[in-house]
Predict the structure.
Amino acid sequence: MIQFTVADWAAWAPGLHEREAWQAWSKAPVLPAGDDTPALPEVPAMQRRRIERLGRMAVQAAWWCSCAEADGVPLVFASRHGDVQRSFELLEQLARGEPMSPTHFGLSVHNAIAALYSIVRGERGNYLALAAGRATAEAALVEAAGLLADGAPEVLVVVYDARPPAVYADFLDEPDPFYAWSWRVRAAGEGARLSLAWATDPAGEDASAHGIEVHRDAGASLDDDRGRADVHGIAASAAAPASAPAALPAGLDALRFLLASDCSREHRVDGLRWTWRRHD
């Protein structure tokens, strides 16, 4: 088990740009939809032109959450699919026998967005990029906990994802909206105090379609919860939670857990049961 404090957070998704909007969304979550893209005014135009839509979302969320006084903070960028649209376009060019752009190839690798962020921010600390399927958000926090244990005062965690090209539709096993969020994670201090535990769970995939269960505070409205479950497919109960197909991708549901009043969250995937708890 790991324990950590979320000192600050930021997020960006189509139609959800402000903290107040995200707080309201966490009480009645829906899949973000729309074509808007962050303007990213913090980044010089020459560099901004190289960043695709998903990268802009990730960089914007990270920028808003970063602390100017914290120098050399480790970065953990986590995305299940990454900028797969750019990779797919390169594969199409290769299949047609066309030359591939070295620049586009360099920007298609999984750590490209993290590298671009570190360059435009002038960050000199270490960064890593990871993907862990539907447990990508959990893996990012485990990596952050390791960095904190090694002595880092805090870690900037950025989780982001986007809709893959239509050719991959038959392989998708959860919703796939555009979104990005960032947490400033510390070992202790002021902020939301969370823990994350994991254990083997061979039957986990049979328990629910996407393996997400939600435990609400005793004071939460059962009527609100039932309405939320009916509309969004999220299992919710003030007593014993039930299971149902989750309407949110697992990575985005982790943000909802932070912002909502849930006391715990379970995510079953790939033979593991991940248990999130709040200790505020």
